[in-house]
Design a protein that fits this description.
The complex is a heterodimer of chains A (530) and B (348).
Chain A lengths: L15 H4 L3 H22 L2 H7 L2 H34 L5 H13 L2 H12 L7 H24 L4 H9 L4 H29 L3 H6 L7 H10 L4 H24 L18 H28 L2 E2 L2 E2 L3 H7 L7 H32 L1 H9 L8 H12 E2 L2 E2 L6 H23 L4 H8 L4 H30 L2 H6 L7 H9 L4 H31 L5
Helix pairs in contact in A: 2-15, 2-17, 3-12, 4-7, 4-9, 5-7, 5-13, 5-20, 5-23, 6-7, 6-13, 7-9, 7-18, 8-9, 9-12, 9-18, 11-12, 13-23, 14-23, 15-16, 15-18, 15-20, 18-20, 19-20, 20-23, 22-23
Chain B lengths: L1 H13 L16 E6 L7 H11 L2 E6 L3 H10 L8 E6 L3 H6 L3 E2 L11 H5 L7 E13 H7 L19 E4 L5 H14 L3 H10 L3 E3 L2 H8 L9 E5 L2 H7 L11 E18 L5 H11 L2 H11 L2 E2 L8 H6 L11 H18 L3
Parallel strand pairs in B: 1-2, 1-3, 6-7, 6-8
Antiparallel strand pairs in B: 3-9, 4-9, 5-8, 5-9, 5-10
Helix pairs in contact in B: 7-8
Classes of the chains: A mainly alpha (530), B alpha/beta (348).
């Protein structure tokens, strides 16, 4: 038989190239995640780790953190899904700007976000669980919007129209048509938000009151204050266990393929709806921008008066802890490298997940870095690749590699649902018409894969821009990234330190906005809405 | 030069180890790697002076905060990721010594170190480089405005007159927070839990980090607490990092009772590839030039007794007569228990 239709006429033959594609992500994850963790375990784990696992206090922390994370997930979904609908289903002026804006909180250094939220809400919401939840919702909105949005833009709006014509109320149509189509992407987003909230650290430290704890905060306390490594290993083990469990359940319950193509959002027909949409957009915009504006305001104020003295400091570099320009150029370079690396690795993992079981396993394991703290990963990487016999530090690759690991799960979370829910009809037609397997496969999945790789690569680059934990351990002291520099400035007294840190935060926000905006634009030029 | 460049390119290309065999004497042209915490800072020209003197390049590697850095060094003990470590303080250093992180070396000019600093830890595994005192800082302007006399001792802090005025840091997440807890343990001995119970009843606020407490809760930053745990050198830092023309004097001062003295150490990492260069670097860290560069960069005091202090330090940095200290081995032994007890008292 000619062409690429498999034995079962409804399935596509997997192209040879793709059969082995899983080796690339598998190799990457083994080398830079599993080996560092194995090295770390080899050094720290002993009998005390096992006894540590029996510690009731540890399980209590895990239970409380899980409750906190579940609440964060629920709140993020309740607030995030309507915003996703607004951004992906309705067209209005400033839609793309708002979409880019929604991504910014996710990638800012968490310390900056938490500090901004505290300045903004400190009088209304005292430090503690409430503020932690708000901060988690704020930073994770982007996860829901991007993951669910990617799926929502491929739900045929006519199906909803048909349901309405047949007499369904808007709510019924939403419940019976839209929700089932979105279910698996909502599940994926929920899992990612759960894991982020469950392993949260910076936000817990700044927005919490000391009673809110996660296993991650226990790990940090045990490693860097008590120097109790077996105990830290017990907490780390429990954390990886919970995260793995959540991810396995998510992967298992993924719904079967559905047919789809991308539908552009359309402007509302009725003026009243249009007004409603614009009003909601303004509300969402204000909500997103208020904490960021607090930081911008802090960069031009001192003792209740206006000032512009700190902005020139960014250029003349008298602040002493490192050149802001240098850090910015470095951070952008690392972000670009991370974006390319993560989208390639994650894209290949997602593509092989379509192909066969080994690929699905790899895609599953690729989500694991979510549960391993960036700081732990940093130390493990250093032990494995920062000294003899393999010293990669001089190559400058360690930070992009660590950042790519942190970002690959996001790429997978975006790409796998998008690919599995793509109809293989076009591929089957191509195969019937004589296309070789790879050609048929690409005809089918290529356009979608290209879109999600650009989108997810952009997200990965943005994550890299704001990442602190791994960079703080892996960077050369004389070449800090922007978040590391911000952290250093915040660690010193004096108005100028704080002012320059605020300026840098504003620059970081602006760069992120531009980056995300550019990626969206690139997608649009290619005729693929993101 | 070309040969070295070529070597570097080949190293990069092969992605494998490219380390020369360990030289016995310090080789000009070799590199020595200094692992330091986030707050490490020296003037560029001072850093360059080491290379000018010895022909050895210095590469400063960031280790995160002091705790993470020491943790990393302990995990890599014997096969280090650098040649010299700077910045293990007295709460961390004992565990690092016990884990055989360091190779003994007695610095050439060890004799110049202020005796109280040198005597704290009797070992040649590490060399004291600088010290700083963690003290309660006072917003003088606030107290003046309210017409209240500022507190003068640790005991005063439990006085109802100062209710809801103090912010400290969580000792489990913040180095000054831990130092303050240690100061109270040193001062009150076994009855320290009672002191903290009284502090709690008097409305002490616990922040997650120094940044948090100093920039959000402390009144000069717009917060509501005019008393904050910080450093004896925070007032001069306020002047140095002020916006525009520096004020004639700082708006904050230091409660010099109940200060905890933190000493920062440097040591040659056991298993270093460049032992001779590492020793030279330790000597250099203790040289007068570096010691005199330390205050305005890291806002701590030099360990060397004959180092000249900058004017702003002699004018505004608090000189603490009787700092609190706890022997390093006792800290290493009891810290876990103290922190757990502290959690209990503060209802965490």
């Amino acid at each position: 038989m000619v062409g690429a239709v498999g034995r079962d006429p409804r399935t596509l033959t997997v192209p040879v190239a793709l059969r082995y594609a899983w080796l690339v992500p598998a190799g990457f994850i083994t080398a830079f995640l599993l080996i560092p963790i194995a090295v770390l375990i080899g050094v720290v784990a002993d009998a005390a780790t096992l006894t540590g696992l029996g510690d009731i206090g540890l399980w209590r922390v895990a239970g409380l953190a899980a409750t906190q994370a579940l609440t964060s997930v629920l709140l993020t979904l309740v607030i995030g899904i309507p915003i996703t609908g607004l951004l992906y289903r309705c067209d209005f002026q400033g839609r793309r700007g708002l979409l880019a804006l929604a991504t910014v909180p996710f990638v800012l250094p968490t310390v900056v976000v938490a500090l901004a939220l505290r300045t903004l809400l400190g009088d209304v919401v005292p430090q503690g669980l409430g503020l932690v939840l708000i901060a988690h919702v704020y930073v994770n909105l982007a996860v829901v919007i991007r993951i669910v949005g990617a799926r929502w833009s491929r739900v045929d709006p006519r199906t909803v129209a048909v349901a309405r014509t047949l007499g369904a109320s808007p709510l019924t149509a939403w419940r019976t048509v839209t929700v089932p189509a979105l279910r698996s992407s909502i599940g994926a987003a929920a899992a990612v938000v759960f894991v982020f909230s469950f392993t949260s650290l910076g936000i817990i430290a700044v927005a919490g009151d000391g009673t809110v704890r996660t296993l991650e905060s226990v790990i940090v306390r045990r490693t860097s204050v008590l120097l109790d490594f077996p105990g830290a290993a017990a907490a780390a083990f429990l954390q990886v266990l919970v995260v793995t469990l959540v991810l396995v359940v998510t992967v298992r319950t993924r719904s079967p393929r559905t047919v789809g193509r991308t539908w552009n959002p359309r402007p509302a027909a009725r003026p009243r709806t249009r007004i409603g949409i614009h009003a909601s957009a303004i509300v969402v915009g204000v909500m997103l921008i208020a904490p960021l504006a607090t930081m911008a305001l802090a960069s031009v104020r001192v003792d209740g008066a206006w000032t512009i003295t700190w902005w020139p400091e960014l250029l003349n570099g008298r602040i002493g802890v490192g050149s802001p320009q240098g850090a910015l150029i470095r951070s952008i370079g690392i972000a670009v490298a991370t974006g390319i690396l993560a989208s390639l690795i994650g894209g290949l993992a997602a593509a092989s997940a379509l192909a066969h079981r080994a690929g699905r396993t790899v895609a599953g394991i690729g989500l694991l870095p979510l549960g391993v703290s960036a700081a732990t990963l940093g130390v493990g990487t250093l032990l494995a690749f920062g000294r003899d016999p393999v010293d990669l530090r001089a190559t400058g690759l360690l930070i992009p590699i660590a950042h790519a690991l942190v970002a690959v799960p996001l790429v997978i979370a975006v790409a796998v649902p998008a690919l599995t829910e793509t109809s293989n009809q076009r591929g089957l037609v191509a195969a019937t018409l004589g296309a070789r397997p790879l050609r048929a496969w690409w005809t089918c999945y290529g356009p979608v894969l290209r879109v999600v790789m650009i989108a997810a690569g952009g997200l990965a680059a943005a994550v890299s821009l704001g990442e602190f934990g791994a960079a703080s351990v892996l960077a050369r002291a004389d070449s800090p990234t922007v978040p590391v520099l911000i952290e250093r400035l915040l660690g010193r007294p004096g108005d100028a330190s704080f002012g320059v840190a605020a300026c840098l935060s504003v620059v970081l926000m602006a760069v992120t906005l531009v980056l995300v905006g550019l990626i969206d634009r690139l997608g649009r030029q290619r005729g693929v809405p993101l | 030069m070309i040969v070295r460049l070529l070597g570097a390119v080949l190293c990069g290309a092969s992605l494998l180890a490219c380390t020369s065999s360990a030289p016995q004497t310090a080789e000009p042209g070799s590199t020595v790697r200094l692992l330091a915490h986030d707050s490490f800072l020296l003037s560029d020209e001072v850093l360059a002076s080491f290379t000018a003197q010895t022909g050895i390049e210095v590469q400063v590697l960031a280790g995160g905060d002091a705790g993470s850095m020491v943790a990393g060094a302990i995990l890599a003990a014997g096969a280090p990721t650098a040649d010299v470590l700077f910045g293990a303080d007295n709460t961390l250093v004992q565990k690092a010594i016990d884990a055989r992180v360091f190779e003994p070396y007695e610095a050439m000019e060890r004799g110049t170190i202020t005796p109280e600093i040198a005597d704290y830890l009797d070992t040649d595994a590490v060399t004291p480089i600088d010290y700083g005192d963690v003290c309660v800082n006072i917003d003088d302007a606030w107290f003046e405005r309210e017409g209240i006399t500022p507190p003068a001792s640790l005991e005063d802090l439990t006085d109802p007159r100062y209710r809801d005025l103090l912010v400290v840091q969580d000792p489990a997440t913040s180095s000054p927070g831990l130092a303050f807890l240690l100061a109270t343990i040193s001062r009150f001995g076994d009855s320290w839990p009672d002191y903290w119970t009284r502090l709690r009843e008097n409305g002490v606020k616990v922040a997650g980090s120094w940044t948090d407490a100093y920039y959000s809760d402390f009144t000069p930053a717009g917060g509501e607490r005019p008393l904050v745990v910080s450093y004896a050198t925070s007032p001069p830092a306020e002047i140095v990092f002020a916006e525009g023309t520096p004020p004639a004097r700082p708006s904050t001062s230091v409660l010099t009772d109940g200060c905890y003295r933190q000493i920062e150490y440097a040591g040659v990492l056991a298993g270093t590839e460049n032992p001779a260069g590492a020793r030279l670097l330790i000597d250099w860290l203790l040289s007068r030039r570096v010691q005199e560069d330390i205050p305005l960069n890291m806002f701590v005091f030099p360990a060397r007794s004959d180092a000249q202090l900058p004017q702003v330090f002699t004018d505004f940095a608090a000189q603490v007569e009787k700092p609190e200290q706890i022997p390093a081995d006792q800290i290493a032994m009891n810290l876990d228990e103290w922190l757990a007890r502290w959690d209990e008292i503060l209802g965490r």
